[in-house]
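Task: fold both queries, return C-alpha cells.
Query 1:
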Amino acid sequence: MTSTGTDTVDSCNNLALRKAARYLGATYDKALAPTGLRATQFSILQKLSTQEQITITSLADMIAMDRTTLATNLKPLAREGLVTVEPSPTDRRARIVTLTPDGLARMKAALPYWRTVQSEFEESFGQDKAARLRAALEDVLGTGFHPWAE
C-alpha cells in the first residue's frame, strides 16, 4: 500500500503542533524557572489578573483547557497561596477562582522573564511570523471541534 503523502505521521497536524508546543513550553518553563512558576501556571495567573473572580469552567474556556486539567493545575497554585478556589455563593456546584495578592505579586515578578523569552522568540522567529502564528492558532480554536463537551 502506498502513501498519498497526506496520511503519514509527517503530515499529522496534531504531532506538528505538539512538537512545537513542547519545544516552546520547555523554553518558557526554563525562562520562568527562577520565579518558581511553569509556563502554564504563569498563563493561568496572567489570565486571572484580568478578572476579579471567575468560575473554573469560565477560566477553562478562556484558556482552552478541560476543567479537570485546570483544577489539577490550580492545586499547587492554591497550596502556595497564589489563588483561592472556593464554592460559589450563588451556585454550590460552581467553584470560583480568585488571584491572591501573593499570586499577583508572583505573576508581576515573572513578567520580566516572560517578556525576555517572548522577545527572544519573536526576534528569532520574526515578529510578523509570530503574530501570524498566534492568529492561525487562534483560528484553530474556531474549527468547530468540541473536545471537552460532555
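Query 1 returned. Query 2:
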Amino acid sequence: MAVMEHPYYGSFGYHVANFFAVSSRFGTPEELKHLINEAHNRGIAVLLDVVHSHAVKNEAEGLADFDGSGGQYFHEGARGNHPGWDSKLFDYGKPEVQQFLLSNLRYWLEEFHFDGFRFDGITSMLYHHHGEGVSFGSYDQYFGPEVDEDAILYLQLAATLVRECKRSALLIAEDMSGMPGLCRPIAEGGIGFDFRLAMGIPDYWIKLLKHTRDEDWNLHDLWYTLINRRLGEKTVAYAESHDQALVGDKTLAHWLLDKAIYEHMHKDDADPITARGIALHKLIRLATLSLGGEAYLNFIGNEFGHPEWVDFPREGNNWSHYFARRQWGLADNPDLKYQYLLNFDRAMIKLAKSARVLAGGPAHELNIDSHNQVLIFERSHLIFVFSFHVERSVPDYRFYVPQPGRYRILLTSDDADFGGFQRIDTALTYETFEEDGVNKLSLYVTNRTALVLARVS
C-alpha cells in the first residue's frame, strides 16, 4: 500500500499523483528494490497495490488538467469526477490512457521486479455508478447498461500484458460487487484476474461483534457468509483489513477486548473478558481461513491481536504519526498474552500448508447445531469442529463423519500454548462407530473452542 507517490498522507496512498514514482516518505527507489530482492531471497512474493481506478484531482501535481483541456486523461465534465472519492476518473476508452496505464504496469514489473498487483477499487471501474449505494442482487446489474465496457476492456488488456511480461505474476481484484467472470481466463470471456478479495468477510465479523451478543450468533448466517462465492473463481479470505482498522475504528482484537487489551494482557491475569476475546479471536481467524476462500490474507498485526488502529497523519488528528505504526514487540514479550495469539497463528498456518487446506476445494457441511452453537465441516480431508457457545461444553458430542476410521486431533485452540485452558487431550485417538446407519465420532466439545481432526487409519 501507498507505494505510488501521493501528495496527501491521509489518503493512505489512494490519491496517486505520480504513477511512476516511489513515495519518498519511505525511502529511495533503490531501497525499495533492495526490499523486494530481500523478500525474494526469503521466498516471499511482493505485490504492488496499484491504483488505476482514479487519480488525485490536484492540478499542481499529477495529471488533472495537464494540457489545459480538462479532459486529456480523464472524462470531461461531471463524469470525470468521482462522487465519493473527490478524485478524477480515467477515460479507459482512449488508446493513450490505455497505453499510459499499461506502461505503468510494465514499469513496476520490469524496473522493480514486483510479482503482481492488487488492483484497488475495481468496483468503481466496472460500473458507471461506481457501486455507490448499489446492492448487487441480480445478474442484470452485471451485464446491463451501467457496466463500463471500456474499463472491462482495459482490465483484460492489463491482465494480458502482465502475463506476457511475467508469466508467474499474480493479479488480485478488490471488488465488492461480485462481477461474474472477474477471475476467469480471458479466453473464456472472463476478465483475467487470479483472485478476488472477499471484502464482505471482514465487514461481517466487525458488524457481528458490534451489534450481536455472543449468545445470539447465527451459525447459518456465519456459514453462508464464509462460503458465499462462485465455484471456479478463487477468493482471498481475510478477517480484518485496513478498511476496518483505519481512522479511529477498532482492530478485531480491540472490538473483542475493548479496554481490557490495555489492562489485562499479562499472562498471569485471569480476566474473563480477555479470555473470551482471545478465544473468539482464534476461532474467527481459523473459521475465515478454513471456510472463506482459496487464499488467506492477514492484516498487519492481526496475527497477534494488535490493539490499535492505523491512522496516518491528517488534519483530523493534528498531523500525528502516533498511530501510523505497529508495536511488533508486543508479540515478543513473554509476559503478555499476545504471544498466545501469535503461537496459534503459526500453528494454524502450518497446518493449512501441510494439509493444503486452501487447495482442497469447497468445505462440506457436516453439522450446524444452533442449540449447542456447534459448526462442523470437512475440507481437504480434515474435520473442523467449532463451538461458539458461551458456556456449554458437551462431553459426548456425537456427529456424522464421511469416512469410518480412527481420528486424531491435529489442532485445538484450547491448547495452553495458545492461551487456552488445556481441556482437550490431544494424545487420544477417536474411533468412529455406526449409529442411525451412519459413521459418527464422539468428542468432548468445550465451549469457545475449535478442533481440527484428521483420519489416521
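Both queries returned. Flag for query 2: The chain has eleven helices and 17 strands.
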